[in-house]
Design goal:
This protein has about 80 residues and is α+β, with helices and mostly antiparallel strands. It contains three helices and three strands, in the order E-H-H-E-E-H. The radius of gyration is 29 Å and the shape is rod-shaped.
């Protein structure tokens, strides 16, 4: 259940109230000019969420790349 209070009460205790929202996860509702505002805690995005998918990436032991036979991929330069 959200805690409801006035903007004046928020102003007097803003840091304590914000810390309470972060610690408990309980939203804070402020009434202002007959309307309600809600302060909620949002988890920070994980760093891994920003990774770009790379479907062509090679997954495995890098030493195996050295041992691979690349002769089928190699083409000599055309001396035009």
């Amino acid at each position: 259940m959200a805690v409801a209070l006035t903007a004046s009460a928020l102003r007097q205790n803003v840091y304590r109230l914000l810390d309470g929202v972060l610690e408990t996860g309980v939203p804070l509702e402020i009434e202002r000019h007959g309307r309600r505002l809600r302060i909620i805690a949002i988890d920070a995005p994980r760093r891994t969420d920003r990774l770009i998918a790379r479907p062509d990436a090679i997954i495995g032991d890098p030493d195996e790349l050295v041992e691979m036979d690349w002769s089928a991929e190699w083409q000599p330069d055309d001396p035009d």
